[in-house]
Inverse folding.
C-alpha cells in the first residue's frame, strides 16, 4: 500500500505562527518521503534510521530548525509530528508518503488510516485506488466514526472515496467540533483461481503470492499452557476463561487438545491429549470455568511438560499421522520460580522441541518480557503476540487463535531455479494457515521472466506437490510527484491455432483524478470524461457486430461494436468488455489527427 497524506494550512493571523502537522501511521509502514511547500518553495525531508534520527531531531530543535520524529502511539500505530513557523497570511502544504506490505490475515487484506484532523476541513477527501491483477473477491470500507448520515458517502469499489462537506463533518448541529476522528479501514481480498499462487514481475524483480484455495485443513494437536500465577488475578483470569471457552467450542472433532496450568506447580487436566468430541469439549469447558489464580511462575518446567506430552502421545500412536503439533502459551509475567535464566529456558525448550512442533506465545499485559517470548517462539517455528490489557482482551485472544487454528499445509518449500533468481527472501515456512498467505520475492538474473519455473513442496492432509511453468507479464511502473501512477505492461498473446506468440504493450493510468483538467495527449484528453451519445444501432458487416452512429465533440461518427481485453483488473487473462471502435484512426473522436501523436524517438522528443 502506497499512502499519500496531503494537508494544507493557512495562517490567517497578522503575525507569524507555528503550525503543527501530526499523522499516525501503522507500525509496519515506513516513510518514503516528507516535504513541505511554503510560498512556492518545496523543502524535501531526509529520512534517517530511528536512533540516528532521534539524536539529529533533538539537535535540530534546540537550534531552531524544522524537524519531525516518529514515536509509538498505541497498539498498532506510530505518530509522525513536525512543526514549522509560517509568516502572516502565508500557507504551508505538508506531503507525507509512506508504504507498507499488506499481510493477509483471516482471508483479507486490511488498509488502516488513522484520521484525526481535530477541526472541520474545507476540502476533506479520502481516495483509494486498488489495483490487483487477479481481480477482487470483495472490497469493503468502513470507519469507526461513520454515522448513518455519512455511510452513503463511501463508494465501495476498486476506487474508494469519502468526501464529506464541511457541514457534514460537524459533530452535532451547532457544534464547532468534527466527528471525523478515528480509523478509516479498507478490507479486501483477491480472486484465487489457481493453486500455485500469483507471480508479479516488475522492473526485474518478482513477488510470489502463495495462498492456494480450497485446501482441506490439517488436524491439530494443541496443548494450551495457561499461567495461573497471582499476577493473573482479577479481570485477566476472567478474560482468559472466556477466551478459552470460545476457543474450545471452535475445535474440530478430528483435533486433539490438552490443558496444563502452571504457577509454582504444574497441573495437567489429563495425562495425555484428548480427542475434541462434543462430550470432551463440554468437560473441558467446565474445567476451564474453575480456573483460579495462585502462586509464582515456572515457565521452564511447564513448557517442557507440554513437549513431553506431545512427544509421548506421538510415539504411542495416539495422534493422527498427518497432523500438526503445537503449544500455545499464555503468560503475563516473568519466570520467578524454578529456572529463571531466560536464555537457559530458551535453550532447554529449543532442545526439547527439536523442530518437531510449533510454539505460539501470548504475552498478556505490560509486565511480560515480550522479547523473551518472541525469541522463544521464533526458535520453535512459531510467533508471539502481545495481548493488551483492556475490555477487548478476550477478543484479542480469540483473534490470535483464529489466525493459527486452521493449518492447511506443513513444511512449505517454494523453490526457484538457481540460475534464474538471486537475492531470494525466506522461501521455507513451517505452516500455511487458512486465511493467510506466503510472500516470497527476489531478483531475476538478467531480468528475464521467460520460462520462470516455480515448484512448491508441502505436506497436507494428503501429500501435496505442486509444480508449474509460468511465463508472466512484465510491468514498468512510473510515478509522478508521488501520486499519479502509470503502468506499462508487456502482455504475451498466445495464438491457439499457431505455435507462436506476439508481445504487445498495455498502458494504464491508475490515478488520473490527480491530473489537472488541462492535461492532454492521446489518452490524456479522455481522463476527465467525454460526453457522447450512441443511436441508430444496426447490423454490421459481421453478424456478431453492430454498427451505430455516435455524436461526440460536435461530430457525427460511424462506429462498430467489438470486444476488447481489459487487463486493468486481471493482468494475466484480462476481461472481455464491449467497446465502440471508431474508424479512420479515430478521426473526429481525438483532437487533431492520429499522426499528431506519433513521435520518431521516445526519449529524444520534446513534449
Amino acid at each position: 500500500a502506497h499512502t499519500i497524506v496531503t494537508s494544507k494550512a493557512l495562517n490567517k493571523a497578522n503575525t507569524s505562527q507555528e503550525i503543527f502537522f501530526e499523522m499516525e501511521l501503522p507500525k509496519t509502514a515506513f516513510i518514503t518521503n516528507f516535504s513541505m511547500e511554503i510560498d512556492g518553495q518545496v523543502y524535501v525531508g531526509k529520512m534517517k534510521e530511528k536512533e540516528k534520527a532521534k539524536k539529529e531531531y533533538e539537535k535540530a530543535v534546540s537550534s531552531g530548525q524544522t524537524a519531525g520524529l516518529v514515536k509509538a502511539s498505541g497498539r498498532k500505530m506510530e505518530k509522525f509530528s513536525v512543526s514549522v513557523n509560517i509568516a502572516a497570511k502565508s500557507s504551508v502544504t505538508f506531503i507525507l508518503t509512506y508504504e507498507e506490505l499488506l499481510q493477509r490475515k483471516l482471508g483479507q487484506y486490511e488498509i488502516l488510516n488513522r484520521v484525526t484532523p481535530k477541526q472541520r476541513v474545507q476540502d476533506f477527501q479520502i481516495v483509494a485506488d486498488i489495483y490487483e491483477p487477479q481481480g477482487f473477491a470483495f472490497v469493503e470500507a468502513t470507519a469507526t466514526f461513520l454515522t448513518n448520515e455519512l455511510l452513503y458517502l463511501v463508494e465501495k469499489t476498486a476506487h474508494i472515496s469519502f468526501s464529506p462537506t464541511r457541514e457534514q463533518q460537524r459533530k452535532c448541529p451547532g457544534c464547532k467540533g468534527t466527528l471525523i476522528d478515528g480509523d478509516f479501514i479498507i478490507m479486501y481480498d483477491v480472486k484465487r483461481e489457481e493453486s500455485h499462487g500469483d507471480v508479479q514481475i516488475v522492473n526485474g524483480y518478482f513477488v510470489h503470492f502463495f495462498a492456494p484455495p480450497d485446501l482441506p485443513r490439517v488436524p491439530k494437536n494443541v496443548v494450551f499452557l495457561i499461567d495461573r500465577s497471582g499476577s493473573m488475578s482479577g479481570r485477566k483470569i476472567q478474560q482468559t476463561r472466556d477466551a478459552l471457552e470460545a476457543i474450545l467450542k471452535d475445535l474440530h472433532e478430528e483435533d486433539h487438545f490438552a490443558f496444563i496450568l502452571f504457577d509454582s506447580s504444574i497441573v495437567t487436566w489429563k495425562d495425555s491429549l484428548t480427542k475434541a468430541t462434543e462430550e470432551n469439549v463440554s468437560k473441558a469447558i467446565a474445567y476451564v470455568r474453575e480456573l483460579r489464580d495462585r502462586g509464582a511462575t515456572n515457565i521452564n518446567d511447564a513448557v517442557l511438560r507440554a513437549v513431553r506430552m506431545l512427544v509421548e502421545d506421538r510415539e504411542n500412536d495416539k495422534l493422527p499421522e498427518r497432523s500438526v503439533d503445537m503449544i500455545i502459551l499464555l503468560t503475563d509475567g516473568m519466570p520467578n520460580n524454578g529456572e529463571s535464566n531466560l536464555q537457559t529456558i530458551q535453550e532447554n525448550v529449543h532442545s526439547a522441541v527439536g523442530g518437531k512442533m510449533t510454539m505460539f506465545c501470548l504475552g498478556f499485559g505490560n509486565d511480560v518480557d515480550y522479547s523473551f517470548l518472541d525469541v522463544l517462539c521464533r526458535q520453535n517455528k512459531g510467533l508471539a503476540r502481545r495481548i493488551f490489557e483492556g475490555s477487548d482482551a478476550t477478543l484479542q485472544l480469540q483473534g490470535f487463535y483464529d489466525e493459527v487454528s486452521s493449518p492447511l499445509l506443513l513444511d512449505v518449500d517454494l523453490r526457484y531455479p538457481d540460475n534464474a533468481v538471486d537475492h531470494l527472501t525466506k522461501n521455507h515456512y513451517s505452516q500455511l494457515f487458512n486465511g493467510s498467505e506466503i510472500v516470497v520475492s527476489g531478483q531475476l538474473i538478467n531480468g528475464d521472466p521467460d520460462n520462470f519455473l516455480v515448484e512448491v513442496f508441502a505436506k497436507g492432509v494428503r501429500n501435496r506437490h505442486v509444480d508449474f511453468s509460468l511465463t508472466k507479464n512484465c510491468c514498468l511502473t512510473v510515478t509522478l510527484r508521488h501520486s499519479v501512477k502509470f503502468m506499462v505492461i508487456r502482455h504475451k498473446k498466445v495464438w491457439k491455432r499457431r505455435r507462436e506468440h506476439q508481445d504487445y504493450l498495455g498502458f494504464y493510468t491508475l490515478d488520473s483524478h490527480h491530473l489537472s483538467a488541462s492535461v492532454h495527449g492521446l489518452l490524456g484528453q479522455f481522463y476527465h470524461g467525454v460526453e457522447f451519445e450512441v443511436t441508430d444501432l444496426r447490423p454490421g458487416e459481421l453478424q456478431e457486430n453492430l454498427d451505430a452512429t455516435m455524436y461526440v465533440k460536435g461530430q457525427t461518427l460511424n462506429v462498430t461494436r467489438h470486444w476488447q481485453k481489459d487487463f486493468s483488473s486481471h493482468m494475466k487473462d484480462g476481461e472481455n468488455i464491449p467497446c465502440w471502435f471508431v474508424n479512420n484512426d479515430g478521426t473526429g473522436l481525438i483532437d487533431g489527427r492520429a499522426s499528431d501523436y506519433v513521435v520518431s524517438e521516445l526519449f529524444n522528443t520534446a513534449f
Observations:
- The chain is about 15% helix and 40% strand.
